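Private note to self, pasted from the team thread so I don't lose it. Backbone tokens:
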């Protein structure tokens, strides 16, 4: 048992089994499909395959912010049932107002539980990159880091978690208003795939535009070599996530294993969950690892 609680939000895009093995608590986000509400419960209510099939059929997904009242209820339950301090990590403030909502709960919790401490960290990350940070924090906690030490480490190292994404279709970026319909149609006709990174404030930014899916997937591996600690000699963990395009993700996994011989353990692969998936749609592959500070 640990003497404090490590916690996060559901767009961490890991499995429940993985989070349980890491002893990490979770608060769920919400989303809707064509106005019908669902809980982002890591595929329990709706599988990743079913979710993306509905998106492909034209259903429109929207996401709902975890508000301050939700956080107060969640933290209250943790404090009452486990009576421990809490370090909670949120989805990037560059993508959501969740961090601000969680931060607003801190003073309220101090009034109700003056003997307990609550730390809030903006991950500046998303999807399994957010999950990658949680893995690192869980490892350090297990090594004996105090909650204060873990909080300081998170703030100093969160921008070292590199996020590389590519999308094999522009359709859903058009639908979400991220690119114009005209540019999207032309891009799809030409087979252009945007390659994206998470920037310093935690926004998703297009880094380059590559023609053909095969080249875009290879570009992820090329950029990993450019950005990873020690380049091709990188010896840390690697996570991959994808939005219902397992074959593309597997192609990237094989290329990474061929180029990076010293990776720690097996490359872990996860589904991009509904919160990120509402905006990205199917056809996105992402790679996460430790590297140069963004």
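Design output:
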């Amino acid at each position: 048992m640990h003497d404090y609680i490590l916690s996060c939000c559901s767009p961490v895009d890991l499995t429940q089994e993985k989070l349980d093995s890491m002893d990490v608590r979770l608060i769920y986000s919400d989303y809707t499909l064509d106005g019908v509400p669902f809980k982002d419960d890591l595929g329990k209510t709706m599988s990743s395959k079913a979710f993306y099939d509905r998106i492909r059929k034209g259903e429109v997904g929207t996401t709902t912010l975890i508000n301050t009242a939700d956080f107060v209820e969640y933290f209250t339950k943790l404090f009452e049932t486990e009576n421990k301090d809490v370090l909670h990590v949120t989805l990037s403030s560059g993508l959501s107002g969740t961090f601000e909502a969680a931060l607003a709960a801190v003073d309220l919790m101090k009034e109700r539980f003056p003997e307990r401490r609550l730390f809030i960290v903006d991950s500046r990350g998303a999807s399994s990159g957010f999950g990658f940070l949680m893995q690192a924090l869980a490892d350090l906690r297990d090594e004996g880091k105090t909650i204060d030490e873990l909080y300081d480490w998170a703030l100093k190292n969160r921008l070292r978690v590199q996020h590389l994404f590519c999308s094999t279709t522009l359709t859903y970026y058009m639908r979400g208003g991220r690119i114009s319909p005209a540019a999207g149609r032309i891009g799809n006709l030409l087979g252009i795939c945007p390659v994206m990174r998470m920037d310093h404030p935690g926004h998703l930014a297009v880094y380059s535009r590559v023609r053909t899916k095969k080249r875009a997937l290879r570009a992820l591996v090329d950029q990993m070599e450019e950005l990873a600690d020690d380049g091709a000699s990188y010896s840390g963990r690697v996570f991959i996530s994808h939005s219902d395009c397992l074959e593309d993700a597997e192609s990237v996994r094989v290329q990474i294993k061929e180029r990076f011989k010293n990776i720690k353990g097996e490359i872990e692969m996860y589904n991009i969950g509904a919160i990120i998936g509402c905006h990205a749609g199917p056809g996105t592959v992402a790679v996460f690892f430790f590297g140069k500070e963004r």
